[in-house]
Design a protein that fits this description.
Shape: globular
Oligomer: single chain
CATH superfamily of the domain at 171-301: Putative Large Serine Recombinase, Chain B, Domain 2
Radius of gyration: 29 Å
CATH topology of the domain at 171-301: Hect, E3 ligase catalytic domain fold
Number of helices: 16
Distance between the termini: 40 Å
Structural class: alpha+beta
Largest sheet: 6 strands, mixed
CATH architecture of the domain at 171-301: Alpha-Beta Complex
Helix content: 40-55%
């Protein structure tokens, strides 16, 4: 667990504004000491240079991710000290140092403003005490959050590469399989495999999934996690292609708010044949699924991915911030509303109530009008920030990697020459070539990862430019305009019944009250 340290001021001066600084430092001991001393000297000198200020100390967290505020104890301690009147004003290097999550950033700032405490962000030159709206802070918070997400994008890219070449390891083998650590692969569990075969056989003779589940429960057959057999569990087995020895990768995905969703085509999927040992044949699998599909059609049941597809402009694009479920359109008390599908099915699983469709449409128009009014003050700086952020470092690193790869090629040629002359033994030759090849592979992976992240940034830049161009001379919206919504908004996240977060295609996340 991270150590919480508050560096106390050298002396106290009465009747002055108590100013504290917050920062994060590396976990490496040598780097940490250097960084801490540098920042302490900077903030203490800067704060003491203001006659009306009193240095109230430096709070710091050690190398902890900035994506969630509750994982940073020093930040929480500083907030507690603010509540107890020990701090009047907070300074920090940038929004990304305070929080890389926009929601947390706004929550912290609002909490401090409620206490009468403003925050000054050096890099962005923002003083929350003198702001007349939260729009600028929300936009700058989106920039900080995008920096954190770029790291996540790199990790996702690495996983997708494994999807593409079929080397991704299933993190949790399904019922019927175990994980063999020595072999590093899924292996058949003989007892569970017999149950899987039984389920497919029963399905092929027309027995329903609920009846199969009841039968297994009566027989006392345990599930994978020791839970209860249900029709949904049985259906999941019938639908799982892994029993044929194949694997469909990226069935689900995690969005920017870390909510998991079923992939209905939003992202690429990868199908790998003969990935592991099969339990049933592909013919049995296809036949059983055909039976289930036919029964579904007879009952008039539609898949969620098809049922509400493209019926309304907002269909599938309004997400519950509580459970991650999708909102759908309903009529309630003679008015049109949007309701969380999870809440509709089971109120105990999600307590998020409906919202008026008219309120959502008004909030969209309000948000777009703010962007039109604040084009020069807000959108231009945002576009410049997105366009310029981290590009130089990325290109320099790519150039550096290319030079290292050239050096590895030269080393390989030298080793080959020494081996041809009989100066080095075959064992040393093989080891040297393998080590160099491994290092080259690592560098190529890093290079591809940086290039992939840069391409993602370019997409954001293009979307930001399009939004900037639109607001140049755009008429004020008097109501909801579907074409404008579809052009610039990726989705809407319902934080609660009074707050909507519009996630723009350019990376902005803007909150509106309803």
């Amino acid at each position: 667990m991270a150590r919480i340290t508050k560096i106390e001021p050298n002396h106290t001066v009465a009747n002055k504004i108590k100013v504290a600084a917050y920062c994060r430092v590396s976990t490496d001991q040598n780097e940490q000491l250097l960084s801490l001393e540098t920042q302490k000297a900077h903030y203490e000198s800067w704060i003491r240079s203001h006659d009306e200020w009193e240095y109230a100390g430096l709070y710091y967290d050690e190398g902890i991710s900035g994506t969630k505020k509750d994982t940073r104890p020093a930040l929480m301690q500083m907030l507690s000290d603010c509540e107890h009147g020990m701090i009047d004003y907070v300074v920090t290097k940038s929004i990304s140092r305070l929080a890389r999550n926009t929601t947390d950033c706004l929550e912290i700032v609002r909490k401090l403003l409620d206490l009468g405490i403003a925050v000054y962000f050096e890099k962005e030159n923002i003083d929350t005490g003198s702001m007349d709206s939260e729009l600028l802070l929300s936009i700058m918070g989106s920039i900080a959050e995008s920096e954190s997400l770029s790291i996540s994008e790199n990790n996702k890219w690495s996983i997708q590469k494994k999807f593409q070449n079929g080397t991704f390891k299933c993190s949790y083998p399904p019922y019927g399989y175990d994980w063999d650590k020595k072999k590093g692969e899924m292996v058949v569990n003989p007892e569970q495999a017999e149950i899987v075969k039984y389920i497919f056989a029963q399905t092929l003779v027309g027995v329903g999934t609920h009846d199969i589940a009841k039968d297994l429960a009566v027989k006392g057959v345990p599930t994978k996690k020791g839970g209860k057999w249900t029709g949904h569990t049985v259906n999941g087995i019938i639908r799982n292609e892994k029993y044929t020895g194949d694997c469909l990768f990226q069935k689900t995905y995690t969005d920017s708010s870390y909510k998991r969703h079923t992939n209905f085509g939003e992202l690429d999927q990868y199908y790998v044949e003969n990935h592991h040992e099969a339990i049933i044949s592909r013919e049995e699998y296809e036949a059983a699924n055909a039976v289930v599909d036919r029964r579904r059609e007879e009952k008039g049941i539609e898949l969620e991915s098809q049922k509400y597809n493209n019926r309304y402009p907002l269909s599938g694009r309004v997400i519950c911030g509580n459970c991650g479920g999708t909102y759908k359109r309903k009529t309630y008390s003679k008015k049109v509303v949007l309701a969380c599908t999870t809440h509709i099915e089971d109120k105990d699983k999600c307590n998020m109530k409906y919202i008026d469709l008219a309120d959502v449409e008004r909030a969209f128009a309000t948000m777009m009008n703010k962007l039109i009014f604040g084009r020069n003050r807000v959108l231009k700086p945002f576009y410049a920030s997105v366009r310029d952020s981290n590009k130089t470092d990325a290109f320099l690193r790519i150039h550096e990697i290319d030079e290292q790869l050239e050096l590895i090629t030269e080393k390989k040629q030298n080793i080959k020459g020494l081996y041809a002359q009989g100066i080095i033994e075959p064992v040393m030759y093989a080891k040297g070539m393998n080590d160099l090849s491994a290092e080259a592979d690592r560098l190529l992976t890093e290079r591809d990862s940086i290039s992939y992240a840069a391409k993602t940034d370019i997409a954001y830049i293009e979307e930001a430019k399009e939004l900037l161009d639109y607001t140049d001379g755009a008429a004020i919206l008097t109501g909801f305009e579907a074409d404008v919504f579809e052009r610039f908004v990726d989705r809407i996240v319902v934080r609660d019944r009074h707050h909507l977060q519009f996630e723009m295609k350019c990376g902005l996340k803007l909150t509106e009250r309803i």
